[in-house]
User: Fold this.
Amino acid sequence: KQEVTQIPAALSVPEGENLVLNCSFTDSAIYNLQWFRQDPGKGLTSLLLIQSSQREQTSGRLNASLDKSSGRSTLYIAASQPGDSATYLCAVMEGGSQGNLIFGKGTKLSVKP
Amino acid sequence: SQTIHQWPATLVQPVGSPLSLECTVEGTSNPNLYWYRQAAGRGLQLLFYSVGIGQISSEVPQNLSASRPQDRQFILSSKKLLLSDSGFYLCAWSPMTGAKTEAFFGQGTRLTVV
Assistant:
């Protein structure tokens, strides 16, 4: 059974720092991995999608990597800002599924001004 | 562009009352549709998914049911709510299945059963 783990559960950093969020999964038979952002009481906003054949994806200050063989992904946020404060969720789409996502519990990020 | 609408945003219902949450997608056809629940302290859990009208698959046994009466409409229901049904319910859609599939989520419904 696929399990997704995110470390750390919470992170507090001063503004301007570069930071890394970690995600690990137990079964490498995935279609893709997706990173989401969730603001309090809101839905999920898709940040980056990495296909199983890809190693990384970049969008602005965000860079996500994928090492499928070791079951790991990282989300790198450069030059963090207070507006980046949110919960970041990692999810894998299992191969052979109908697009079902298996989520980690998230990392709650707080960026202090 | 595609958009997903989910309502209501918040709902407080007594134990034993019925439930109906609705989700609609615009700007696409034949989407895969999903209902997830996010309970306090737990990750998002897939409840139901649908690959077409009238085709519903359930991931976990529960007090809830889902229906897809139209191509872009997905409804989550219960005949009698339990306290344990409280949580944050999210509807999602994806255009296809495969490596390039990206999922898009609605704004969620906060359900409190009292």
About this structure: The CA atoms of residues 12 and 94 of chain A lie 31 Å apart. Chain A has a mean pLDDT of 95. Chain A touches chain B at residues 4, 31-32, 34, 36, 41-46, 49, 51-53, 89, 91, 93, 97-106 (CB under 8 Å).
